[in-house]
Amino acid sequence: xxxxxxxNHTSYxxxxxxxxxxxxxxxxxxxxxxKVQLFHAPVLGWLARSCGQIxxxxxxxxxxxxxxxxxxxxxxxxxVAIYPEGTLTxxxxxxxxxxxxxxxxxxxxxxxxxxxxxxxxxxFFFPDEKPGFPLVLSRHHVFRVSAGDPVDLSDLRGQPVTKxxxxxxxxxxxxxxxxxxxxxxxxxSAPSDLRRRACLLAGAALELAGRCSLGEGMRLAEQTLADGxxxxxxxxxxxxxxxxxxxxxxxxxRPLLAQRSGRVMAMNNRTLARLAKLAGAxxxxxxxxELHVRLGDEVSAGxxxxxxxxxxxxxxxxxxxxxxxNPNMLxxxx
Length: 334
Hints:
334 residues, alpha/beta, 10 helices, 12 strands, globular
């Protein structure tokens, strides 16, 4: 039957990474909702149209046509994939940011299961926001994909679709995706059931590769994670790409404080990058912006949100002037 797949969006390589996972792992061919510009691109546009993908004309009256097409596909028993964030994440550390309500509306109006999918590593293949030739030739680039249990929206279904209802459904969807990403990134706070599922999948791969006997894969995967070998392997991959280095400490710095209490709902990656550049990065190795909060964190007025580091007082002053003129680099809602 119809199923709605929701995933985090870090790179233009995401659709291929998640698509391969869905096709080979679940036997489902996804119909993505994608920007209409993609459908006009040479070769790629023809491929998107031929594979039944769904164009979205954002910021126009025709945007709702994409949701209607997605509803029709779901009603026909198809697998529809959507990025609830609506665009590449603006979070500097690539965590999912606040979602749009389109995926929630689709879920509530079609009554199909909503499967949260987390992916990590696709941004190594397309390391910036500009489409180009993917860096698929390096053996050091690895992407990981994980799917969770359907998002529980049962108590929201059958109610009048209001802004508050859509916001709540969207929050649950983003939280479920974030939990999957946490497992893939090896976060200590990752839910134990998702960690177990990740080890289960890794164990199955070990068994298929002949690295252990049948029935021993799960134990070997858990042992590899617990004794640090998985982390050591990840460090070796990073070392091959330039290494993990502790940045030097800045000579001058200044914290930027929250002007009000609330939850961090959005981060403007472009203005944050501009702030870091005005402080002297990347030429000055000790310069940059150190974030102290993540999307979804609750903060109090006066609490440090970030610290601006510089190697000269003049550069720090430039950066602070820019920060004062752009107070909404981090959006906080009560």
